[in-house]
Structure formats: structure tokens, C-alpha cells
Amino acid sequence: MARVRGPETRLLFSMLRPERRAATGVLAVLLVALSLRLAMPALLGRFVDGAIAGRSIDALVQIAGMYVAAAVIAEALQLVVMWGSLHLSWRAGNRLRERLLRHALRLEMAWHGKHSPGQLIERIDGDVEALAIFFSNVLVHVLGNVVLMIAMLGVALFIDPRAGALLVLSAIAGGFVLIRLRAAAVPAREAEREANAQLYGDLEERLGGLEDLRANGAGRYAVHRLHVNSSRSWHAARRASFLGDGSYAVAAATFAAGSVATLALGFVLHDRGLLTVGQVLALFRYSEMLRQPLERIADQLKEFQKALAGARRASWMLATDPSITDGPLGAEALPDGALAVRFERVSFAYAADSEPAVRDIDLEVPAGSHLGVIGRTGSGKTTLGRLALRLWDVGEGRVTIGGVDVRELRQDVLRGRVAVVTQDVELFRASLRENLTIFGARAVSDDELTGVLRRVGLSTWLDAQPEGLDTQLEGSSSLSAGEAQLLAFARAFLADPSVVILDEASSRLDPKTESHITAAMQDLLAGRTAIIVAHRLATLDAVDTIAVVDDGRIVEHGPRDALAADADSRYGRLLRVADRRSIIDEVVQ
Amino acid sequence: MSRPSTSRVIFRLLRSDWRSYVLAWFQWLCFHAAPLPVGWVLKLILDRLTDGSPGLPVVLLATLLGLEVARWSLFVSAAFQWHGAWVGWLTVPRVNVLSSLATGTGPAAGRLPGSSGEAVSRFRDDAQDLGLVLDVWLDVSASLLTSIVALTVIASIDRTAAVSVAVPVALALGLSAWLGPSLRRWRRAAREATAAVTSFIGDTFGSILAVKAGGAERAVDNAFTTLNLHRAKVSRTDQLGSELIRSLGYGTGEITIGVVLVLVAGAFQRGELSVGDIGLFASYVTVVASLPKWVGRLGAYQRQADVSVDRLGELMDGDRAAPVQQVTTYLRHGPPVPEHQPLVSDGLRQLDVRGLTVRHPTSGRGVEDVDLTVRGGELVVITGVVGAGKSTLLRGLLGLVTPLAGEVRWNGSVVADPSTFLVPPRVSYLPQVPRLFSETLSETILLGLPPDQLEDALWLACLEEDLQRMPAGADTLIGPRGLRLSGGQVQRAGAARALVRRPDLLVVDDLSSALDVETEMRLWERLRTAGTRTALLVSHRPHVLAIADRVIVLHEGRVVSDG
Q1: Is CATH 3.30.750.24 what the domain over B350-562 is classified as, yes or no?
Q2: Which end of chain B has fewer surrounding CB within 10 Å, N or C?
């Protein structure tokens, strides 16, 4: 707790700032509740002393009545405090969640390549959860309990300095034991959490791959792993319990010893006539009450570590500046209609120390023309599209769209004009409509949506969906791979793009389906510039030019017809190898 | 099928290791009851304070200290014992359900809910819900017994006091029992809202390319805000509800002490009650007042367990009692090392499929009345357009979904349960997107087999060049679900996994989506010369069709050509 001025504490304060007023209010109510709690043992003492002194029944009933009232009001106020602190901690937590999500969305693909969605769930939700819990607890438990404890010790000192001093000593001893021993138990708790994470992580994977397991006769092996993991969890849980609950028990016993000592001292002081019976009773109750606030504070110390770690990670993430930032030019910089795409001496590597994915590429796709790109897996075909969309920035050279360097443009403008369809269709667990418009990013009417679905050949499929556009898509389980692909086409064309990049987009479609949508595709691609990456040559029958990529370089580029006719061209050779495809045409027809 | 009640099911779970339950129960009972002697000694000490006898009551104070030390030692022992028992309660349903899913008969995967995350929550949350009932039984019974003793003692001292304790506690009990079920409903709503938020984050960043390419950042942000608002609302209700139950325990205690004071003021003032009695009331009231908290939880957990038992039962064909049947858990010493039965089979002469009709469970489409034959040594290819039912045909044939009609014959005899018969060493299946596990490459391929066939399988699957480029060869960690591998490598690792089992028949669902033609052809070449000779595969690659012995064309769920 020594460090006060790290970026993590700044983040905590920035979370708290908008909630200052609410927090002050909650704190005020809390103080009232606590002072009532504080009064209760004193009232009990007065009740006993009053009875011994022979005061009237009415007076005694009045004291007891005050006790009841204090208990009821304190409890009600405690609930109000809880309600208020929940409100403000959820507000603050959600504000931070949204800030983190927004920031992560701005970060470039290279960053996302290194951070899995699972990690981001942990960053955006898990860490913030710890922060928000801490946030509400600091207010209710830590601040409140510190105040309660100090006040309690103050009252005890006021009743009798010696007894008060004893209480202070026992609070220090108990607190020390509590904090030191609990710290010793932390690694064991961590190990327990680790063992459970391992167990659930393993189960998640095995259940996800259940068919693979069964089909490979490995079911018994999966059960064996569950046994191994459960046994680990059992040992870890018992060890953590021994250390954790053991340290708790030692602390509780220390406090109990403090209470017994207080009682003994009370006896001595009462014998000398320095304390009344009621005061001894009140002091004893105070000594018993000390334990709870200290426990809660010690609990929060652990949460505090977790929250600090979370805040640190969150502030790191927020401190990561996107390396791909908006250029100065807006929509007006680009002419309407199809746009030319040019790669000028472009070289690019995914990481500083890795082999370049593309080297010294010079390539022009005139506005409205269609380029086919072929080459072996890993030759750099996909990279071209990613650079045109500016998902990565080029290392050397430049990529222009409509004559403008993509780095000069605002990203939303660029991506409003360039669309991409890849082989991996990314669907959300949301309605069909939300999937097509990506949560309303495109303002499109339902008629337009059904229109596009019809054009890509999904109208029969759509008719079969009971709730039409409101059908919930559960990932891709309700769609075949080919249908998902068609949906991706529909999504891309809804944006009415000027440039379309199809990256192996039809590789999951069979030739018959592909030829079905080829007509639709030609229709959709008309008047747009297209870059079509494919390993099935038939896909490229209608393109204007062909580029052959090998090891990151363009090794051949020219009009398709000329290359097809040239017996020595690579494309020509590939075409002849593929000519056996007539076989399939025969069987399918 | 009989439908045992939830309590019965949970009682059966208790019996699976009743010794540890009884031991835990007894220890917790002692711990719950510990405040009774402590309170009694305290009363004696306070009485000594007022009766004017001089000197410290050393023996009583030492007894008090000894009782406290004993009480907290008991706590450590009880907690230690309980944590082990708790893991045991969770393990029994998990082992039963996983065994049934992974090794039982029939199309098990169809029993799983949509996402694997949801499936895990059944293994985690639903199993815990069962355990929580066992736990709360323990607390309720111990707290009830202790409360009865405490009330009896109070009544023996003063009737009015006993009544004044019983009335507020009974009120709190009623409130608690009434609140319990809502509490679980709120908890469930909060869990669902949380799941919606986390899966939204996961989806967003899993589909980050689509989001970015679609320029949908702001729209995603807005959708996220809506989900967050809803979650904050339901979570607040949930948390406030839990606080209310807690407060019923603590607050009722304090209020009841006050009520007792009001009602016994007269008796106390007249000297019918001693200071020690007042002290005893105060400490015993705290014991009795914790009862409503436990009863509230009992109502909540029991109600929730109804749903959880159903949900676990669904994973086992709707049999509610099956998840809690007796099973060895091996918790203390770990499971025995599994024995490997040598993979031997009688070889495949002929596989016949007759009149097979299969429907896809969600889309309702499928194949109708399909006949096909694969003879030993043949390469048979199924082809057809998207949605023709190719994958569904393979899955129905292998028993991964239940066929509506038809039969499968292996070497002439009818296969009763394809899902457990058509597995290695007879058949290996390679799905379109194989699921790998986050361990080393060799582990995800072998899945528990001894490694003697690994080299061959890696070569057959054309992985040898990739291996040279990996930092630790076959011992390289491949990341969550094989994320560190390329799509083609994942598919070939899946192929290696199928081939290392030396099946008589290899069933493959379309390799072409992640493998280029050259690699795929090399793979088939190696397989035809050195590996499994018989294969049934889905493909529409001309090259593959060209090397096939027979091609079967599916169209709208029917065979339109075979030859």
C-alpha cells in the first residue's frame, strides 16, 4: 500500500471523481449508522447499571427501547448505504468497462493478434469487476470500519484509560496476526484458484471437442484427465483451507484472548471500585465487536491487491496508443464510384524480426477492374487485402485508394469504401439483422436486407427461418459453412463499397453453389473495383487481370486472357493442371 | 422413467461418501454449538462480578479461554474436512456426466447445450448448486439443534425472554423463507446478464476483423452500453437481496436483544434475573438469530437445485438420478494410470449403409434413404452442392446424430450403436474443423495413446516440415485450441490424430477449406501407399475426385449418382 502515485491509483481516482457527490452522501449515512452501532453496548451497560442502582422500570424500558430503535435504524441505514454504494460502483465500473472496450476497438489488428478474446474478457470485465467490488467495499467496509474501530477505542479509553489501552493492544495484536497470517495463506488460495481454472479450462475444451474425442476413442482419456484435475483441486482446496481458515482461526483466538483479558481487567478495576458492572459489560462487548471490522479490513487488503493489479493492467491497456491512427482526410477526399487501388513499392513484415510477408510490390488495379490473385498458402495474398484496408500499416512504400494514401484518410471513411469478405466468417450471437448491419452500424431498411439476401441466394434459407430477420444466430451452428459464407457476402455488399476484397471467400462453397452465385457476384461487383484471392482457379474466370504471388513477390501480372493463352505463363500451366475439373462438371450435372 | 425428487437426488449424492458428510456435519454441529458453553461460562463470570465475592475467577476465565481455543481449533478441523468433502460432492456428478457424454452410447454431443461455455457452466455452477444444498442442510440442521438448546436454556431461566426471542426470530424466518426463492431468481438473472456481457466482449474481439472492416466500432460500443445498463440493474437487485438475507441474521440478533431487554426489564429490576442472565441472553440470542439466514438459504438453494438437477439430467438423457450414481472419485491418491488395450480389429472387408435417413437437429434438413457401400481398400468420395447433406450423412452414419431410419453393417453384421462401434481401431473421423486442445502438439494428437505410432502419423499427415520450424517440435505448446497453428496445420494435426489410431476406415469431412491442393494431394498419396487404404470422404476438389475409386453425388439429400 506504500505506493500512492502510480498510474493505477490515478485510474482509481479518475473512476471516483464523477461519483464524488454520491460517495459523500453514502459516507454520511454510513457514519450515522455506525454511531448508532457504537451506542448500543453503552446502552446495554447503562441498562445493567440502572437496574443495579434500582432505577424505575420506566427508565429501564426507555433505555431498552432506545436499544431496539438504534438496532432497527442502524440496520435500515446499512441497507441504504449498500444500495447507494452498489449504484455508484456499478456506474463507475461500467463507465470504465466502456472506456476499455472503446479503447481496445481502436487498437490495431497486430495488437489483437497478441491478445485473445478470452484475455480481453478478463481485462474488460474481470479486472473491472475486482475494481468495482473494491470500490464499493472501500467505502462501506474499509472507511466505515476504520472509523468504527477508532471511535470504539476512543469510547473505551473514555470509560477507562487502562481498559481502553488494553483494547488498543488487543486490536493491534489481532490485526497483526490477521494480516500477517492471511498474507501467508495467499499463495495457497492462488494455487487453489489455479487448480480450478485448470479443471474448468480443460473441461471447456473437452466438451467443445466432444465429437472429436468420441470419434477418436479418447473419451476414457478425457475422464481420466478430469479425475487427475479433480484430485489436484481436492488437495489444493484442503491445503488452502488449512492455511486460510487456520490463520483466520488463530486471529479469532487472539481476539478471544483479548476479550478474556479485558474481562479480567474489568474484574480487577471493578473490585477497586473504578468501573461499574455495566461498564465492564460494555467494554467486553466492545472487545468482541473489534473482531469484525478488523476482519473486514483484512479481507479488503487482499481485494486491494487484486484491484490494484486490475487497475495496473487497465491503465496499461489505456496507455497503449493505437499505432494506426486516423489521417486528416474525410469522405470528400475520395471521388464517388469505383476507386483505383495502387500498391507502390510496398514491403511489409508482421513483426520486426519476422520474414517480410510481401516485398517490393508494385501493382495497380484500375477503378472498376477486377484483379485475381493466386499463389500458394503463405505467399502473401491475404496480406495485400489487409494492407488495402489498413488493418496493418505498410513497412515501406504506400497503398493508395482513389489516388489517396490510405494513411491520409480517416479509418471510418476508408472502411466505408473498402469491404472485405474472408474465408473465416465472423458471426455474433445476436439476431440476423444485427449480424448483417453489425449492431446497426449500417442504417439499412428490412427491405434492403431481404433484397441483398435474395441476391446472394439466401432467400430460401431466409424463408425457412421462423422469425425472419429477428432469428437469433447461435454462432454458426444454425448455418452450414456455405450459408455463413453467403451471409458474409450479403454483409459486405450492404455497405455499397467501392472496392471489394474477396479473400478465399468462396473456398467453402462447392463448385455448383459457387457457379450459382457467380452471376449474382458479377452483378454485385459490377461498377466496383475488386481484388479476388482464390486457390480455385474457376473462381477467377471472369477477372480482368491476374497476379501470381510467390514468396511475397509478384512473379507474374497481366491480363487474364493473355496469360491464359500463353503456354509458358505460370497461370497458363496451372489452368491446364486444373482442367481435370471437367470431371466434376460431368458428375454434378 | 421415474422422476426422483430433488431432495432424493441430493440425498443419493450424500450417500456417495456418507462418512465424510457425517464427519463434516458433526464437526460443524460442535462449532455451531460452541457459543452455548461459552455463554454459560460468561454468565457464571458476570454473576461473580455482581455477587461481591473478592478475587479474580481464575478458573472460570481460564475455562473461557480454553473454550475459545477449542472452538477455533475445531473450526480449522471442520473447514479442512469440509473442503475435501465439498470437492467430492462436485466431482461425483462431473465424473458421471462426462463419462456418459464421452464414452456412453448414442449421439452424446447432441445432449450438450449450444456453446461449450454454457456446457461448462453446468459442470461448474449446477454441480455447485447440488453441493450447496448439502452444505446448507448441514448448517440448517446444526443451527436448528443449537437454537433449540439455546431457547430451552433461556426458557428455563425466564419464559418471557424465551418468547421474546422466539417471536422476532420467527418473523425473520418467515421473511427469509419467503425471500429465498426470489433470491435465486435474482441471482440467475444477474448471472445471465453477466454472461451476456462477457460473451458480447468475446464475440466482439473474436470478430474484430468484421467489426473493424465494417467500421462498426461505435455501434458495438452502443450495444455494449445497453447490455451494461441491464446488467447493472439486475446485479444490484441480486446483491441487495443477498445483503438483506445477511442483515436478517445480524440485524435480527441485535433487535432481538433489545426486545428481550424491554420485556425482562421488570424482572431484572426486581432482582429475579442476574447480570449473568442478561449476558447469557445476549450471547444466546445471537445463536438463535442466525437461524433465519440459514433457512433463507435453504429455500433459495433447494429451489435452484431443482433446476440444476434437471439441467444435469438433460446431459444424461433426462435421467435425474444418473448424475449422482455411485462412482469412485480417486481424490486422495489420484486415478490409476489408464491401461492401453492394444488396438486390434478384424479389418474391414465391407461397410454397407442401407436406407439411411438423417436430419440435422436444428435446421431439419438432411439426407433421405441413402444407400452406399465402401469395400476394403477403396477411396470413396461424396460430393454435392452446399446444403446437400454431405456432412449430415457422415455424422448420421457415425452415430453422431441419431438417424431416423436405416442401418449400417460392418463386414455384414448390423451395427447396434455406431457411436461406440465405429471408433478406433475400426473408424477414425476427421471433421471439417478439428478441435485441438491447449497442450503440446503430441498430446493433442495422441490423446492418451502411447507415442510409438506418433512419428508415422506425423509423416502421413504431412506435418514433418512444419515440425522442423516449431521451437520444440512435437512438444511445442499449441495455444488455446491450437490458436498458434495455421488453419492448414490444425487440419493436418487433426489428420494425424485420426491416423495415429491406425483405423481400418478413415472418414474425412472436406479437407479443402484450409489445405491447398498440393498439400492435400501429397497427403492422399502418402495415405494410399503407407497408411489406411480405405477412406470415405467429402470433397469437391477435382483432383480428389480424379483419384477416387467411386464418387457418390448427393443432391437435396438424395443420392443422384453412384459410380
Answers
A1: no
A2: C
Residue with the three cell numbers 476504520:
A146
Tell which residue, B404, B409, B393, B405, has the closest CA to residue B353. Answer: B409
β-strand A529-533 against A499-503: which pairing, if any?
parallel
Quote the ipTM score.
0.88
For B477, which DSSP code? B
Q: Report the residue from B84, B103, B266 with minimal CB separation from A219.
A: B103
* Cα dist from A466 to A444, A469, A488, B363, whole Å: 21, 9, 21, 11
What range does the domain containing A182 cover?
A: 161-274
Say yes or no to pLDDT of A98 above 90: yes
Nearest CA in chain A to B225: A98
Q: Do residue A427 and residue A558 come from a single domain?
A: yes
CA-atom Rg of chain A in angstroms: 35
Please give the single-letter amino acid code of residue B20: S
From A235, A253, A274, the end of a domain falls on: A274
CA A386 to chain CA mean position, Å: 25
Minimum Cα–Cα distance from B362: chain A residue = A478
CB B153 within 8 A of CB B279: no
CB atoms within 10 A of CB B417: 12
For residue range B276-331, what is the model confidence (pLDDT) as tens digits? Answer: 999 899 889 988 988 888 888 887 788 788 888 988 988 888 888 889 998 998 99
Instruction: Report the residue of A40, A43, A204, A516 to disrupt the B interface, i.e. the one with the largest count of B CBs within 10 Å.
Output: A204
| Type of residue found at A303 | E
Grid cell at residue A186: 495467499
The three-state secondary structure class of A501 is: strand
pTM equals 0.77
pLDDT in tens, B345-396: 778 889 999 999 988 766 667 888 889 999 988 999 998 877 678 888 898 8
Place A587 in a pLDDT band, splitting at 50, 70 and 90. very low
Residues A498 and A577 in one domain: yes
Name residues whose C-beta falls within 8 Å of residue B52's C-beta, 6 or more positions apart in sequence. Answer: none
Task: Classify residue A295: in a domain, yes or no.
Answer: no
Residues of chain B with CATH 1.20.1560.10: 6-324
The answer to whether residue B522 neighbours chain A at the CB level (below 8 Å) is: no
What would the pLDDT profile of A409-431 be if each residue is shown by its tens digit? 998 889 889 988 887 777 888 88
Instruction: Report whether pLDDT(B505) > 50.
Output: yes
Q: Residue A63 and residue B146: Cα distance in Å, rounded?
A: 30
CA B35 to chain centre: 38
Q: How many contacts, defined by CB atoms under 8 Å, are there between A and B?
A: 463
Q: Which residues of B touch A380 (CB under 8 A)?
A: none
3-state helix, strand, coil in chain A (%, to 5): 70, 10, 20
3-state class (DSSP) for residue B358: strand
Phi, psi of B68 (to 5 degrees): -65, -45
CATH for A131: 1.20.1560.10
**In this structure, which topology does domain B6-324 adopt according to CATH?**
ABC transporter transmembrane region fold (1.20.1560)
